[in-house]
Amino acid sequence: MHSLGYVANTTQQALDEFYPGYAEAMTKVGKERGWPPMTRSRFEAQIGPEGALLVGSVDEVAAKILRHANALVVLPGLLSKWILPRCRMKN
End-to-end CA distance of the chain, in Å? Predict the structure, then answer.
């Protein structure tokens, strides 16, 4: 798993410090790929518990990493016990 991240003393500090550069880079890449410009609300949606970015206080980022790690532990079980057998049945 790969996620962009930034940790600061507080979540608000991390958001305020990380957003400008992130928005600039994502808007530039998005322009080349036909995506809309990065907005603060789109950025903050990616910060939430289910979002892809690891930006916040030490405690928040650590908790999010653990959540992601626990979710990845479940995936191999789903693949081997549910998804792969059903794929084999179709063949």
Answer: 30
Nearest to 15 by CA among 68, 69, 61, 64: 61
The residues spanned by each domain of the chain are 5-90
Q: H/E element holding 7?
A: strand 5-8
DSSP string, 21-33: HHHHHHHHHHHHH
pLDDT in the model for residue 79: 53
What's this model's pTM, rounded to 2 decimal places?
A: 0.73
Low-confidence spans in the chain with pLDDT less than 50? 91
Question: What is the structure's pLDDT at 51?
Answer: 87
Per DSSP, helices labelled H in 5-49 are 11-33, 40-45
What residue type is 10 in one-letter code?
Answer: T
CB 30 within 8 A of CB 37: yes
